User: Fold this.
Amino acid sequence: MASRTAGEDRIRDRIDVAPRFTQADVMRLNNLFRGQDAAEAVASVMGAGLIGETAIVSSFGAESAVLLHLVTTAAPGIPVLFLDTGKHFPETLAYRDELAARLKLNMVNLTPDAEELAAKDSTELRWSYDPDGCCEIRKVRPLEKALADFDASITGRKGFQSATRQGLARFELDGDTGRLKFNPLANWTREQLDAYFAEHDLPRHPLEAEGYPSIGCSPCTSKVQPGEDPRSGRWRGWDKTECGIHSAVTPIGDDPATDPAF
Ligand code: SF4
Assistant:
């Protein structure tokens, strides 16, 4: 075995506590790829390994096929994280399987922790009185755990989807984790998405034609009327627009005594 100097030992033993990405990195990346076509940007970023270990996060919703096709064309085999909440429409699970086979996706299905589910959602009805808490158990925590192994995630969010997503940047920090979020379709329009579907002959989510332009878990997704925000059918009737994996939400307390009786 080769001997090491004391200096080498110090370098190897040092714990690197610096964040992986900073706001300055985000600004640099946004400037570097400003105005560049999404497919070219993805190919450059992934080809040069600019953002480290990366996974796609996909809901297999109405427009997910575009991001999945675009990214896996540049980076075949990239892990695709799917939050298997236990509350999806059967059509979504079938669509996931169809796209996974068609695009040869490296699927990673993330399920909630069984003990936490039993302790906090034994009725399976938490969505009806504490959707933030339900999302926390079924989406936020499983994703947090899975992303701990990655430097960056790629999302399919678009600025046009809702008032709260307008002006979405292509690159952003993932909260205070030091991870990066890459949103290649941030400035895409509905027309560009439709053209991409047609050009690559990608299958549509079966519920889209039934009036669901944004598709999440079945209890929390309703049809959208013409003229409404595409995401207005999500958590309708609640002051909630995001599940918590992209911006913080506020679950009610953990004390089961405060849960309603059914
Ligand atoms: S979207 Fe609804 S059912 Fe799905 S995890 Fe969130 S609150 Fe629960």
Summary: The two ends are 66 Å apart (CA to CA). The beta strands are 54-57, 79-83, 106-110, 152-154, 171-173, 180-182.
